[in-house]
Amino acid sequence: MTADLFVPYLIALHTLLERLGRDHALTADALLYQQRLQENIERTRRHGDNENRRSERSEIIEPLNRLCLDALGEDFNALVRQAQVRLGQDDARERPRKPFEPQTVFIPAGPFLMGSADPAAPPAEQPQHTVHLPDFCIGKYPVTVREYAAFIKDRKAHPAPAGWFNRQPPPDRLDHPVTDVSWFDALAYCAWLSEQCKPRVYTLPSEAEWEKAAALSHTPGPSAGEGPGVGGSANRVEDLLGGVQQWTRSLWGSQPTQPDYDYPYNSGDDREITDPQHLPAQARLVHRGGSFKSRPEDLRATARGNALPDSKIAWRGFRVVMQIP
Hints:
There is one protein chain. By secondary structure, the chain is α+β, with helices and mostly antiparallel strands. The chain has helices at 7-20, 27-47, 51-72, 76-86, 145-154, 183-196, 207-213; strands at residues 104-107, 110-114, 129-133, 136-139, 202-203, 245-253, 284-288, 305-307, 316-318, 321-323. The strands form three sheets. It has a four-stranded antiparallel beta sheet. A four-stranded mixed beta sheet has the order 8-7-6-9. The longest helix is centred in the N-terminal third of the chain and has 22 residues, at 51-72.
């Protein structure tokens, strides 16, 4: 079982907890099983799936089935199957992640605090406010050179990033984040990835999705270096701060110093762009995460940067979001 195939179990647990509610007598038991399952998944992701871990996981699933039947009159595995359908893992093969497909982390639906409560924070990061988002899966890491190379190899008319010789990536940087990609390049990659991995659909994260995934991210040291970042989050999303800036699909506006799309965040105000044909003239897009060139004090999960969509620099890349219907 590959790491991403655990996601339906996490979605099923989230569904179970939502349906039980905070005050149900069995909620505490469900939370305990959730913690045990997450620990089992993390050990499997780090060390592989051996017989002991499969046995331990079975010992968690069996009582979850009984709990689900007692509380909801429904088998826990039925909730897992529903989640698999939503994720496009609904056939006998479970449609495992392809070799070039980025690993993703499931972020459950619910509210989070977006923006900064620090009075000294830039006005573009204020006010702090509550945003509700549905379930989504976000790339555990920024898209790597190795993953992007599969796109460049298949789409022979698409230009390769700077520094690639004869469209071949530098062999010593295959696991580094891909850089020197424009916002248009990033969206083209997402469209290609969706084509290759049907029915899974990929795009760039909104800045709200990025910030929720970065919740409780820690700040890297003063010199993160020109490689993977070291800002990880409580959501197990990695390389968020201090590696490379990361494109989002969120509009900033036409002026670099003042956003036209400010806070409170509102996804219904046309700030989210997934089709380049709908991009307004002179529009700038939000990027997040800072880079190895940023000052340490600027490496914050709430910090908002912006750039023109055709810009390409050696310290900006992107990560993907997988949409959950």
